[in-house]
Write a structure and sequence with these properties.
By secondary structure, the protein is mainly alpha-helical. Helix content is 70%, strand content 0%. Keywords: Membrane, Transmembrane, Transmembrane helix.
């Protein structure tokens, strides 16, 4: 690499550039709001509390609330990385990347919905799960992690799909015991137990399942930018995940366990997004967060081998999708 390339790489990985990328993401969302390009995505898969999309009136309030939730998710990702040395670097570029690519899907970034709530809760649960690696006395944190998932289920029952994922994560963390499984079960049912036991909400509604044929979504040209962004994220996760695999195998057992949990979460979210095609917007924010860790790994592993080229090209592709949506 030339001296100019090294300088450019350092600039991209710097804290200042991370802040600028985050500000650019906020500006892009504001532009989409002003241009009326934020299509409403209604949540209807609730069994108890009102769906997140109904918490606030549509418009600027909902947009700013969602931006705060997405930024909070990025902050939790940074804390996870620094506390557990996940990416072997203190650079926050991967979190800025996450915020940027999410902003390239204005329908997801520009309004408060279950998608951002899912990402924040899952990253919080990952933080708790990471903290119990090979610790015998950890039932309270297992309880809390599954309590968060159970709380999410009251507003969006699709959260329940992640229960087996985090049960498997207990095995990755070497705490897969009867006591921990019991703590997970109790944690998951406690939110419903409290709300219905105290009569805080009416009797639960029967979940409404629906299926939209992919051909119907593909026929609407307005959905193509969002579908393209999701497809690009899935492709990026597959490519970077495989490229990082050889390096990650060389890590110690604890680091491999951490990355194994993230890989499991990434694969599960990708599968859910493909199979549950009707509910695709729900998974986009979490999928972006999972893939952002893979991009961070790749950039760290190839920092001296022009890795910035692939990352910049990828971000340019997302920005192209954003402009496609703005001009369509």
């Amino acid at each position: 690499m030339t001296r100019k390339e090294l300088t450019f790489t350092r600039i991209i990985r710097s804290r200042g550039m991370g802040v600028l990328i985050g500000l650019a993401a906020v500006f892009m969302t504001l532009q989409a709001q002003f241009a009326g390009k934020i299509a409403h995505i209604g949540d209807f898969r609730t069994v108890a509390f009102p769906t997140p999309s109904a918490w606030l009136p549509e418009g600027s309030i909902s947009m700013w609330a969602n931006i705060i939730v997405v930024l909070a998710t990025g902050a939790v990702m940074i804390i996870i990385n620094r506390h557990f040395n996940l990416l072997r670097t203190t650079s926050a570029f991967f979190a800025a990347y996450f915020v940027f690519v999410t902003a390239c899907t204005p329908a997801v970034m520009g309004q408060l919905g279950a998608s951002s709530l899912l990402a924040l809760i899952m990253m919080g649960a990952v933080w708790l799960i990471f903290s119990i690696y090979n610790q015998r006395i950890s039932s309270r944190r297992v309880f809390l992690a599954f309590f968060l998932i159970g709380l999410g289920q009251l507003t969006e029952y699709t959260f329940a799909l992640y229960i087996p994922v985090f049960i498997a994560a207990l095995g990755q963390m070497r705490v897969f015991t009867f006591k921990k499984i019991l703590a997970a079960i109790l944690g998951n049912i406690t939110p419903a137990w409290i709300t219905w036991g105290l009569g805080l909400i009416p009797e639960p509604e029967i979940p409404q399942f629906c299926f939209t044929p992919p051909s119907m979504l593909l026929a609407d040209g307005a959905d193509w930018p969002m579908l393209s962004a999701a497809a690009l994220t899935l492709l990026a996760g597959f490519v970077f995940g495989n490229l990082n695999l050889i390096k990650i195998i060389g890590f110690n057992a604890q680091a491999r366990a951490y990355n194994g949990v993230l890989t499991l979460l990434s694969i599960a979210t990708g599968i859910f997004a493909i199979v549950n095609f009707t509910n695709l917007p729900l998974y986009i924010t979490l999928l972006n967060a999972c893939v952002a860790f893979q991009v961070g790994h790749f950039f760290r592993f190839t920092v001296m081998r022009r890795g910035y080229i692939a990352v910049v090209v990828l971000m340019a592709a997302y920005f192209g999708i954003y402009m496609w949506g703005m001009l369509s």
